[in-house]
Amino acid sequence: MGRLLQLLTRNGGFMTLLLVELFSFYLIIQNNDEQDAIFTHTMGVVGGNMLERRREWSDYANLEAISDSLIAENARLHSELADARHIQVPYRDTFFMKDKDSLLLSDSSRRALMRPQYKFIAAQVVGNTISSANNWLMINRGSLDGVRPHMGVVSRDGVVGIVRHVSPHFSVAMSVLHRQTKVTVAVERFNALGSLVWEGGDPSIMSLQDVMRHFRVKDKDAIVTSGYSQIFPKGVVVGYVDGDPEPDPENRHFWNIKVKLTQDMASVNNVYVVENIYYTELDSLMQQVKNEQ
Fold first, then answer.
1. Within this chain, do residues 146 and 40 fall inside the same structural domain, yes or no?
2. Which of 22, 78, 135, 262 can bridge 158 by disulfide, Cβ–Cβ 3.0-4.6 Å?
């Protein structure tokens, strides 16, 4: 109470003046329709602006949650798209011939549930290099999220890399800009197979090897994943032929093709880890074949 009295004593004159001015302002508004209208309009504008700023800040605060939700939804849609575009494996494969021109599943197989081949795990890149001979990416998903070594990493714009090391909460992927990365791809127009590798230099350009010259490859031809590996689904766009190809100087039966990547590896952010549900089974079969050679 003593401090309040001291404050009033020191600032009494100023506070009295302020109260008189506020009261005068009130009387002017109450007894003047024009001034009242101006005041009401001004308060409406100020109040509207304040509410708009509040909404903008609220929207900004919710952006991260909205972004995460959209990324997760995209992962689900990627999985559904992969289900539609790639093999569906029934629990049973019994079938019978209805007539010489038609092949039908038996009743038990027709009722069997169908299992998708691919699932997608949404993630964000938290570390990335592009200037080394062997480049890596770190993502914020790990073993607790279902990520394992040898899973592919893609974005909405193309292939990004292959998971090599996993911890509970993070994973390190070998970038496509790594000398040991080799992605089995195809020239989409012919389904002509080849291997996509990085030879260093420009991080937006990779080399396509082993495409035979009887395929008339042209500038701007689309390059897509072949689906022949156990890592990436078929048909993911990787890039486009950059310029007309030239004969490979080391083997003139093949083209020397440069590919412009569709994914800018310097700005990659939101990605999807590709889980091939049958990877272990397919890999085991391939190992048996290799052991027999």
1. no
2. 262
H-state helical runs in 138-249: none
221-267 residue pLDDT tens? 999 999 888 899 999 999 999 999 999 888 889 999 999 999 999 99
Please name the residue ranges forming H helices in the chain.
Answer: 2-30, 33-85, 107-111, 279-292
Contact 182, 217 (CB under 8 A): no
Query: Poorest-confidence range of 8-22, 34-48, 58-72, 84-98?
Result: 84-98
Range of the domain at 18: 12-85
Rounded to 5°, the CA angle 148-149-155 comes to 80
Give the span between the Cα atoms of 93 and 112, in whole angstroms. Answer: 9
Residues 6+ apart with CB under 8 A from 163: 147, 148, 149, 150, 151, 152, 153, 171, 172, 173, 174, 273
Coil, strand or helix at 31: coil
Mean pLDDT of 162-178: 97
Q: Which DSSP string corresponds to 247-282?
A: EETTEEEEEEEEEEESS-TTS--EEEEEEETTHHHH
Q: Is residue 76 part of a domain?
A: yes
In the beta sheet, which residues pair with residue 90?
A: 114
**If you average pLDDT over every residue of the chain, what do you get?**
78
Q: 273 and 232, same structural domain?
A: yes
The pLDDT > 90 percentage for the chain reads 50
